[in-house]
Amino acid sequence: MCWAYTSRIIRHKLAREGKQLDSPEMALAKMMDVGFKSVAVQSLHTIPGEEYHDLYRNAKRFARMAGGLYRVRIGDPLLAKNEDLIRVTEAIIRHLPKQRKKNEAVVLMGHGTEHAANAFYPAMAYYLQRRDPNIFVGTVEGAPTIKDIKAALLAKKIKKVYLMPFMSVAGDHARNDMAGDEKDSWKSILTLAGITCVPILKGMASYDDIADIWVDHLKTIYTQKYHKDKR
Amino acid sequence: MCWAYTSRIIRHKLAREGKQLDSPEMALAKMMDVGFKSVAVQSLHTIPGEEYHDLYRNAKRFARMAGGLYRVRIGDPLLAKNEDLIRVTEAIIRHLPKQRKKNEAVVLMGHGTEHAANAFYPAMAYYLQRRDPNIFVGTVEGAPTIKDIKAALLAKKIKKVYLMPFMSVAGDHARNDMAGDEKDSWKSILTLAGITCVPILKGMASYDDIADIWVDHLKTIYTQKYHKDKR
Amino acid sequence: MCWAYTSRIIRHKLAREGKQLDSPEMALAKMMDVGFKSVAVQSLHTIPGEEYHDLYRNAKRFARMAGGLYRVRIGDPLLAKNEDLIRVTEAIIRHLPKQRKKNEAVVLMGHGTEHAANAFYPAMAYYLQRRDPNIFVGTVEGAPTIKDIKAALLAKKIKKVYLMPFMSVAGDHARNDMAGDEKDSWKSILTLAGITCVPILKGMASYDDIADIWVDHLKTIYTQKYHKDKR
Amino acid sequence: MCWAYTSRIIRHKLAREGKQLDSPEMALAKMMDVGFKSVAVQSLHTIPGEEYHDLYRNAKRFARMAGGLYRVRIGDPLLAKNEDLIRVTEAIIRHLPKQRKKNEAVVLMGHGTEHAANAFYPAMAYYLQRRDPNIFVGTVEGAPTIKDIKAALLAKKIKKVYLMPFMSVAGDHARNDMAGDEKDSWKSILTLAGITCVPILKGMASYDDIADIWVDHLKTIYTQKYHKDKR
């Protein structure tokens, strides 16, 4: 079992703090050297976007190397199959702030991307709103945007929102872009529009029933029978 | 300029009628023989699902062949970027049946898939319902299912629906699974639930402003500057 | 069973004469369309040089295509394993011109290449000279050159040589570069050096025991058990 | 600049002695992490056999990874182009034992392989014998074999031979298979046949003019202009 970090920025930042972390490629090259033949790589991404595909592509390169890994499987990110959307929807419904009243909204902040996988954010919104029409999903770098969300909140005359990061951890984006005091943070934008904001700084991976989905994706590839065509 | 059919079933069926059609691989091998160096392949798929990825994967194989095509680009299917979802939403809104009243629903039938790209159907539903809450998107083989749609229609006490195929052409699925008289067709299921059905047998590619999206995707790859990393 | 021509020049020349020939890629794409899953491709090259590797590389691309060939094996050219060098040596010894006297030389003309596989020509020369020191191997585009051969013949005071193409067919190179009347043909060069030349216009594939080697290479891949790593 | 060892056996042996050495894959993964974009990998193999091709294949995998090395070139082994055969021939001629008399033989021991690249040994023999008919090239695991060499030495009534490793270093094969006292070593086999043996335990990389060839192969790829097709 071994942890690797896909983000070079994070790796080099932690290296300066004395923590040496492997990139996925370094981890795979080491496993190959040790003599492993079959490796299961679990992505901790939220959607199958560019970063997930980069990990997939690079890890798969190792499955074709001479004298090396014979089988490299990559687990789905949090959201891939339709059942993942359903499971995440149900988990989020369970973790809505206890104190929230029905006419108060919940706004989830996803990362967003120009990649086609951005479709998972409106898809997520669709399933959440089927359960509760006052739950919204916006993104920092994709769509829907905070502008879209603000317009929808105002149209529904929402007075108070709970802001939750729809990311594995409550990191930089959650603390600054979502809950920061800068004037372009979501909190600032909505506050300025007359909406009271309550940020909740807890990442998706902190909820056991959501973390379970990633773990189940690992179990799926780990127990998968070998099929010549899908190694 | 050359047409190729990805579906072996369709190719062999048309061959029996005397029409010889190339598979994408045959078309690409011929172009390679003729001496083409750069080829733009436009997918006519609706979503970037398994079939799109198969086409992508196979076509890309030709970009690495000796003495052959140097550059093979594959255009996005109808839905990929977020702006595609928006454009298709606006086009569908424009093409809603004239005679439809506000309290009557429109149900779009997509193909659906177990592939992650199924997320485009709920994403599409999200954008359409932002414009008109009585528009629904269901799928034959993925989610949402007709069962989901029926429940939603009944919950909203809808009495009449217009059924539209959300596929490039109004083929087998539209005529049979959507509008057929078999008891498991969508028309039969909804009629049995007391909802009047009006099927519209017109595929998405028949609407000029939707066909334009595919054409624009071709233009995008066709005019793309060569970039060493993205050939 | 299907024939394909790797050379675009030959294909297009024959096309002008009304004979439509497939490139290997077209043949493979058609086999894929028909529904073949496993294909054995037999190279008719003499050495594993650039052309052989191009064929290998392109044919292998088809083994990874979606919905296509599952297994594509490519047979060795005439010369690959050491036993091929031995078999060809013995066959050539059997086919030396009957009328040739011991102090007359035999000069084989190979194609030659800048590719590393040019080593097969001096290797061939080594094995032939172990059997008969008056057999020489030269090449048109690689090494040894006709200049090398001429020097060796003069050093050994050879008065007469039999020129034989060391190519599958006695085509352009044999008729012109070897046996032509142009002043830079091998015949002209050696004649000018006072050596009588007797060209034999018969390609290697015309000798049954040499053709058998290619056929055996096809048998080898055809009967090979499937091994997950070597498809 | 970084050294990597292709042999897992050697790496793990040295690891037990406290020397941590990288495999080529680990070295490349690290370079990718550091941010290198273009890497030149120089093989120290003697022939382009299976090990060279494994290195080539694995290193090339890194040239297609996301966010990684953009260009990975692999230098030729000692022998590839015909000019390499010529240069090595001339260098060996220069380094023949000073004390050797004309009627004494020199036997070079190559590794040998079942790979097609074994042809480089008879090719090497061809070029050496053109310069000096009493130089022989045999191999441990390929052809020509020591049995072939012994027969040739006896046929020429050679009484004394100098044994030289035709490998980059005088390692296990040179000390044991060539010069060892075991009854199946080359020294024992030839001694038993009445031939006096003088082993010279010096690898090819110890001769400056031979080491220069590897260095020149590195220079070639290092100074190569970028060509889109040959990265």
Question: What can you see in these coordinates?
Answer:
The structure is a homotetramer of 231-residue chains. With 231 residues, chain A is of the alpha/beta class. Chain A folds into two domains: 8-79 and 211-230, Rossmann fold; 96-206, Rossmann fold (3-Layer(aba) Sandwich). Helix content of chain A is 42%, strand content 13%. Chain A is built from nine helices and six strands. In chain A, the strands form two sheets. In chain A, strands 4-3-5-6 form a four-stranded parallel beta sheet. A two-stranded parallel sheet of chain A has the order 1-2. In chain A, helix 5 (120-131) links the parallel strand 3 (105-110) and strand 4 (135-139). In chain A, helix 4 (82-94) packs across helix 5 (120-131). The first copy, chain A, is elongated, with a radius of gyration of 20 Å. Chain A starts with 7 loop residues before the first helix and ends in an 8-residue tail after the last helix. Chains in contact: A-B, A-C, A-D, B-C, B-D, C-D. The interface between C and D is medium-sized, with 24 and 25 residues.
